[in-house]
Design goal:
Two copies of one chain form a homodimer. Chain A is an alpha/beta fold. Helix content of chain A is 41%, strand content 12%. Chain A has one domain: Alpha-Beta Complex (Amidase signature (AS) enzymes). In chain A, strands 1-3-2-4-6-5-10-11-9-7-8 form an eleven-stranded mixed sheet, sandwiched between helices.
Chain lengths: 460, 460
């Protein structure tokens, strides 16, 4: 028998890290259909509480999984169950962009990112909950660690489903903090690639200057696999790069950002632990004085561009837009086109200045969120600590490694140079090891335990 | 009677410049319904030869025109008939992106640019022909000056319709040279705003780094009006800016580009005339040595990104893609993601270097095309002289002012600093006056004569 499931308890399969499952699938030590069934079992058990999905097609996924098991290995994601934020078009699932305006809307084609994952052999399982048009009005998803808390947004369902072991990987997008924040609140790894490295074709457009496609996994190597497929850059998932990062000394800029005073106790404690764990590699970094006002600039660019992009919805379906979104659109409409032109020129200058940050640093460590997931699901949390990096277009990855005072996940993000996503991921792999190693007890804080993963595969 | 039509021959109305018509419409010296009827008459007479439209709704346009005539002035484009390249979504017209894959496809919402024009009071008349997915395989449109010649592409129908007096204004897009080239071949003014100044929401995505929404008119002030609506920056259409440009001495960099040896006799003669007309303002400018390889870089970025963006069509509908487009996609797929990352870093550097060009120059004069429209409609012409400026994200405007040896229109483009679209347009207005004034006989070379326009309004 060559199926992993014959020798290990099926309950653990859905908790495998994607890269581990991918290796087992490629060797045919694991069948796609078994992995999928484990995810479906998990969904059946937990979806009533978590509510990560807006639609699901188990039958189609099972058919494809059987086909994959019977055929050649298709690509880097062969046999991995994945979900797609409902902001991305899908040819075989309705796509409502989190808005009643688009209820039941069936796109003709997949978003490019979805097509790339399918071509790489991933098994599309369903669409995941987005906030309303990827803005602040929440969907129904709850934090799998504590269902009274928000999972973050706007990529709420994708982060929650991966955190809960329902999916190996999931796609999301970030305009302010919509990948990093839900990753932080749900305790998974979230990866926002460099701006425009991943095609946005078929993604509902909000802000050309900011919108970025990325995704979630349970480890750095998971999102590295996904990132390699999305960018077409195989270096992102090349183990030799991970080894190289481990070998050479890293120069990590410890950048608390000008908003550090707003970080809460949980984030401060995580920061202190990280500083200790990275002693010898890290050096405090302050943004240069000419790089001030990034958060305000990001807000203005987002508001102006979103108001323009959603103009069709505003002029025809305003009654179906939430009050907070209408308020954002009106904020955006109050910004003059002349001011926006200056803002775009400022963005270009800031992105150029950001290059300078990487002359003496390989990567930057920075806060991901103010703290752990807030209580309640009416507010998806503050993207404050993500806005600046999104504005700069830099690749970011959230690393979960700690627990807050209420037991919810906490972590920090690592930020890389524009276009050097492969270096960021390699560095993140090493940094994550240090952070988890420094606090071994915390490595299993997430409901999907990396320890369980290791045990499952050790049985082979 | 307050209708212009009562006192001037209706035949001239469809040839009015958009800004002149807009002023008369706002004063109620001209009725939207009369202007529209003049355009419809022109379409009826000429569309069998020109074939600029893929769809048209005269009844809906007439209803709206009557409503506009009976109500308050809605905005800068009040009562102006406009057309939309079939690459932009429209809620009331099918949108096929120039591809049989999307035959009959009806989007749920307008593209943002379309919604903005409608909100400004423009009267949508129809969808105009795009090449296949805005690439090189031509549509059915012919050059209105000589129907055996290409109108250029990919915004073929929009340029031809405006040139032929069927529409006051039309929307298009540019990824390589799809606004400037058809403007040049059809002898109209084409305006490509700074990259990402105009929302691309609802526009079929080909290349995030390059795609830009813009449009066509019969004068600089026409596209300025359209540009003001699309960017939300009223400075673009502010007459005070046009006057200021006329008052102050302009510093014009005469930039033949490194590909000048490929310009033909028509373009060279136009260049010589322009040099004479602008004597005292112009100074030869060579791109600095570090700004080489822009054309090759643009081609690589376009091929890679288009191959990713059209991946869904390629994997599901390859049989319905033309051979040249398939070849481009395969070229793009041969470029590695690692190379593309370096290319994106190079684009960022080049855009930064481009800022330096504007330290000593207000605007740059450059070739638009190799020459006049080539014979035949199987090839939409070479975007060679547009690729570099598109890569740099700079605003560009084509100025028609000469005739080639076969009588077809020829002109040059003016290029501005990123984000300074209003300065470019003001400068272009002045430059265009010099170019036309230097060659008064050529001012009426286009089938839509500015002389006729002036006569029509002089009757008021």
């Amino acid at each position: 028998m060559n199926s992993l499931t014959a020798r290990t308890p099926p309950v653990a399969l859905n908790q495998l890290e994607a890269w581990q499952a991918a290796e087992a699938l490629a060797r045919r030590d694991l069948l796609a259909v078994d992995l999928l069934r484990a995810c479906l079992d998990r969904i059946q058990a937990r979806e009533p509480q978590v509510q990560a999905f807006v639609s699901l097609n188990a039958d189609a996924a099972l058919r494809l999984a059987r086909e994959l098991d019977a055929g050649p290995v298709r690509g880097l994601l062969h046999g991995l169950p994945f979900g797609v934020k409902d902001l991305l078009d899908t040819e075989d699932f309705p796509t409502a962009y989190g808005s009643p305006i688009y209820a039941g809307h069936q796109p003709l084609a997949d978003a490019a990112a979805v097509a790339l994952c399918r071509d790489a052999g991933a098994v599309m399982l369903g669409k995941t909950v987005s906030t309303e048009l990827a803005n602040m009005s929440p969907g129904i998803t709850r934090n799998p660690h504590a269902t009274g808390h928000t999972p973050g947004g706007s990529s709420s369902g994708s982060a929650a489903a991966v955190a809960d072991g329902m999916l190996a990987l999931a796609l999301g997008t970030q305009t302010a903090g919509s990948l990093i924040r839900p990753a932080a609140y749900c305790g998974v790894v979230g990866f926002k690639p460099s701006h425009n490295r991943v095609s946005k074709a078929g993604v509902k457009s909000l802000s050309e200057t900011l919108d970025t496609v990325g995704g979630f996994g349970r480890s750095v190597r998971d999102v590295a696999l996904l990132g390699a497929v999305l960018t077409g850059d195989e270096r992102l998932a090349d183990p030799r790069h991970f080894d190289a990062a481990a070998a050479g000394p890293l120069r990590i800029g410890l950048c608390q950002t000008p908003d550090w005073s707003l970080a809460d106790t949980d984030t401060r404690r995580a920061w202190d632990r990280a500083e200790k764990a990275l002693a010898g590699s890290g050096k405090a970094l302050q943004l240069p004085p000419e790089m001030t006002g990034l958060v305000a600039l990001q807000k203005a660019v987002q508001a102006f561009e979103t108001a323009r992009s959603l103009r069709p919805e505003w002029r025809r379906h305003a009654a179906q837009l939430s009050a907070p979104l209408l308020a954002l659109l009106e904020d955006g409409m109050r910004i003059s086109g002349a001011t926006h032109a200056q803002n775009l020129q400022a963005v270009a200058r800031q992105r150029q200045l950001a290059e300078g940050l990487f002359q003496d640093h390989d990567v930057l460590l920075a806060p991901s969120t103010v703290g752990a997931a807030p209580a309640g699901i009416d507010f998806t949390g503050d993207p404050l600590f993500c806005r600046g990096w999104t504005l700069l277009g830099l690749p970011c990855i959230h690393l979960p490694f700690a627990q807050g005072q209420t037991g919810l996940p906490v972590g920090l993000q690592l930020v890389g140079r524009f276009g050097d996503d492969h270096r960021l991921l390699a560095a993140a792999h090493w940094v994550h090891q240090q952070l988890l190693g420094q606090n071994p007890a915390l490595a299993t804080a997430a409901p999907v335990a990396t320890a369980a993963t290791a045990a499952a595969l050790a049985e082979r």
